[in-house]
Amino acid sequence: MDGPLMDGRAACTDHSLRPRPRRRLAAALVAAATLLATLGAASVRAADIVVRDDAGTEHRLSAPPKRIVSMLPSLTEMVWVAGAGPRLVGVDRYSDWPPQIEGLPRLGGLDDAQIEAIAALKPDLVLASLSARSLERLQALGFRVMRLRSETHADVRRTLLLVARLLGNEEAGVRAWARIERELDAAAARVPPALHGARVYFEIGGGPYAAGASSFVGQTLARLGLVNIVPAELGPFPKLNPEFVVRARPQVVMGVQRELATLARRPGWSAIPAVQSGGLCGFESPRYEMLIRPGPRLGEAAEALVDCLQRLPPLAAQGASSR
């Protein structure tokens, strides 16, 4: 009798008292497991590297890339300054700094990127210009292509910090930009006083393109106390009519050495003050290439410009001060 009764009591006791603690315990365990999973997922998300490129594409990486292809010299230099040079597996044909990249595969340029060769390198990141349309096929193949634009000092700073963050070393980008600012200030302090406010024309290549006041080159010139003859409203790198330069009468002309040596033969250019007085700053490659790259050597480029300004003949300085 006691056996069945005890079983009944046990059943009644299990039904009225025990299931609730067990259900609570089970519910608590489920809640704890859910919380841990949520925290784990949040931790993973917090560790992700999330950036948006200048094409508007969001890139989410769970870890810094290990195999990088750079299709623009300025971006190659940024990768190196960010401490990720050894992760470069290929570069564009024009990347030439630092010297340590000399042996890397050359993969074409903006308009003729070697898609098959890039794909064969199996990069987990391709850095490129916003205008590099030839890489759309690479994106279609599933490769991560980050498109970036650097036309102004602000662009260079933003891109430098973004690249450094992407590569897991944002502090290197911060230090690099701080160095650039110091170098720009040091260069400005060395400009001959007689050239403060001098009108300058910076020619891109052999013309007819110029570095306008809104470009990173133009902004460097402004930091040096020079006045760009190409106003900001014409855009960063406008195509100019040669007569525009003649009418603007620059007191200093900067550009590729081989072109500046023949300026006097251009129609009307012999009357330009810079040509008459010898206010010409011509640069040989690769020094000139450094000047037109929106990368981590902006400060060094400013120093190179000032080195030339200091060598200009007295007539150039007199022409500036008597404007």
Structure description:
This protein is elongated. The protein is an alpha/beta fold and 323 residues long. Strands 7, 8, 9, 10 and 11 form a five-stranded mixed β-sheet that branches. It has a four-stranded parallel β-sheet with strand order 4-3-5-6. The chain is built from 14 helices and eleven strands. Helix 3 links the parallel strand 3 and strand 4 (88-91).
Draw up the topology in text:
Blueprint: H1 2-16, H2 19-47, E1 49-52, E2 58-61, E3 68-70, H3 73-81, E4 88-91, H4 115-120, E5 125-129, H5 136-140, E6 145-148, H6 153-166, H7 170-188, E7 199-204, E8 209-210, H8 216-223, E9 227-228, H9 242-248, E10 252-256, H10 257-260, H11 273-277, E11 280-283, H12 287-291, H13 298-311, H14 314-321
Helix pairs in contact: 6-7, 7-13
Rounded to an integer in angstroms, the radius of gyration calculated over CA atoms is: 31 Å
Instruction: Quickly count the helices.
Output: 14
- Fraction in helix: 40-55%
Would you tell me the structural class of the helices and strands? alpha/beta
> In whole angstroms, how far apart are the ends?
122 Å
General form: elongated
Observed structural traits:
five-stranded mixed β-sheet, 11 strands, 323 residues, Rossmann fold, four-stranded parallel β-sheet, alpha/beta
